[in-house]
Structure prediction request, 843 residues.
Amino acid sequence: MEEFIHGLSRLELLKRGALGAAAIGGADALLRAGGAGAAVSAPKPGGKLVVGIGQSFEDINVLTAFGYRWGQLMAYAMYDTLVKYDKNGRAVPLLARSWSTPNAKTTLVKIRQGVKFHNGDPLRVEDVVWSLNRIHDPVKPASNNFLALPKDIWGKAVKVDNQTLRITTKKPARMIESFRFWFIMPENADDLNLGEQPIGTGPFQYKNFVKGDRLDLERFPDYWNGSRPYLNELTFRFLADEAAQVANFLSGDVDYLHDISVATLPQVDGKRNSKLIPSGLFFQWWQPQMYFGPLKDVRVRQALQWAFDKPTDNRVAWGGRAVPTWNPLERSPYSIGKAWPGGGPVPKYDPERAKSMLAAAGASNLKLNMMILKDPGPWTREAPVLQQGFKKAGINANIQVLPAAQWFDRLYTKRNHEGIAVNAGSLPFPWALIANYMMKATLLKNPPKYPKGAIPALEAAYNTAFSPKNEAQYSASLKAVQRLMLSQAAAFHTMIASNQNVAPKRLMGVDSTLIGDQRFDGAYLA
Amino acid sequence: MRLLTPFLSLVGVLLAIAMITFAIATALPGDTAEIRVGKRDDLTSGQRAELVAAERERLGLDQPVPWQFVIWLEKAVQGDLGVQEGGGSVGKAVLERIIPSLELAFLTLAVSLPLAALLALRSVRRGKRVFSVVAGQLSTVGFVVPQFWLGILFVIFFAVLLGWLPASGYESFRELPVEHVRRVIMPLITLVIPTTAVFFHFMRQSLREALGTQYIRTARAKGLSETAVLYQHAFPNALLPSLTVLGVQFGQLLGGVVVVERIFNWPGVGGLLIYSVERQDFSTLIACVMAIAAAYVLMSTLIEVAYRMVDPRIRRA
Prediction:
């Protein structure tokens, strides 16, 4: 079996990715994530776990539901993917028993036998083929959670025999890294109304869904993976309000709080005989409007880099738990290192320097719009802190709070946001996606109003990272993205913090990875 | 026939509300098709634009707004309120959510009204000045205290410290009646306090005004007991303004208690309304508004009928 892509073994590739991820957030803290989830005694079957999550769900149809809490937590309980990543960043077979790459554009996948759907039907190659093609259907919208391959890369999936399917791509693709996002559904799932009755092959099956309140799941007795799952019942409670999260945890109504904010953490940390389980990384940044307004001028953007009061921000808005950086790829395998591109010092908070640079750029008394989301998040605390910091640099900033729909509309659809806009996400793989997260809204392939990209070289590097001909080109394009992103000030002030989950001390075996995935199939109450 | 008139006007009111809601919904910033398609990192801008156009056509958003409304209305009268983003029926989703909202609203009114009446009657009695002052002050506090804070306070007290009640959640009354009742207590108290305060203020003021009128003086001159004066003469007259407030409060309790729903995870229609606005799910948004409006208008109509029954002057007008 050929296990190489672009001259680099998959194992090596993933190892390198995982090491980079560990390095970003502070290796010690993050590596404990695996330890916290590791089993220390023989799994004990039975029991119920109630997981509180900070989002309310009205939709549990895997084809349309979205949000990282769905895609990296809830969906994994009901649906299996072809592979999962383990705590070391290695791909572990799930529904794919094995895979091989006869050439850079073809992947053969052998499907695990003896797997059943929750309705009792056996998993067939046809189900996997249908799922993969449906995810990539250019006409029917599917949830963004699937992270489908770009259309100019995806080819098609076809059945080879009763155990094997072939995936072909139009260009070389890093296929294995996408396998963990692709939930496998029964063939023709569009007709099955999965929103009312989810049918997957996952460790837990649907029991009850109270929109806006909870999703109740129960152990799937025919799960393919040995004696898993160990828990009899798993409930996800939707607690969008932070105060309600704390109250529900302290009252014992909720056992496990998923990804709680830094503001909430001190109120529950260590209470009710609990422990912390880190999972994945949350990162937040500010995107400038590079197509019009004062930030069109690269000198103004560069001056602004010196006006972000990172230390105060970290202390006040992040409880000192974040890692301030400019470059999220700084310590990844593809990093350009810590040195600032083009030489010169790495920007730090220096309002006087920002002021003089703004004056030199003819932008004294800069008026800056800061667009943030109405939804709760670190930005609600961060924006006023930065606003105060800007004031010392002579920048008159105002905070514009918008509901998610309007924020999305301005940033991604109309692209008419003014000044800087907050954006955030959990750390994804592949690495190119980080660049995508950071750049997509401002660095557009074809912005509707602006035919030319603000920084064409950056756009070119960004596009290349999505379909590299080989590993060298992938690495080079990611490095180019970093260099241009920093030197052209195309993204500001990245804060990275490890996601924290509060769990009962006796809860063992939670599969909590560096990349934010959480699975409860191996979880048990000791 | 006169009693039926308010019910006949209900249809017209609902139609007007539907038109206004539809107009507002379509004027909201954002594009439903764009949001449903999402970011789609896998598509080029051109491919994504095609997908958005297809979605717009599928949702009927490519038609002129008035025509969209006609299509919606035609389907709505046949009971088809559209399909939610996840594929579920809008009608079913709204029905599922309006029932818990109605339950909470009716229970709140059922507790608040008699409680406010008792407090108001007692506070206007002669020789109850201290009670009147204390009740007045407490009701002011109940009126101004934020429901969010009150709700959290109850959760901390009853769920965290005493452990008597679950912090939040919803259980079906049919399946788990005891658990259902346990879960309704805290949101109910959270809503009863400000609602009682509002009713109390209105009733006490109405009673005071009634007690200053000549017919009360006549009643007292006839030698009627204070209880008879209050309950038989003053209270029925003071009740009328409170009926007006009841209609307003009902509407507020139905769609305006999102904060309480959120704290206690009560799956009411307010949460769905907010969700539909955030997701630009116009079918659900309009259905939510219509459901709230229908319940509100129905309640107002019933109050109007009650007015006619209670007050002979209106009956004769």
Summary: Residues 471-487 of chain A form the longest helix (17 residues). Chain A touches chain B through 61 residues (CB under 8 Å).
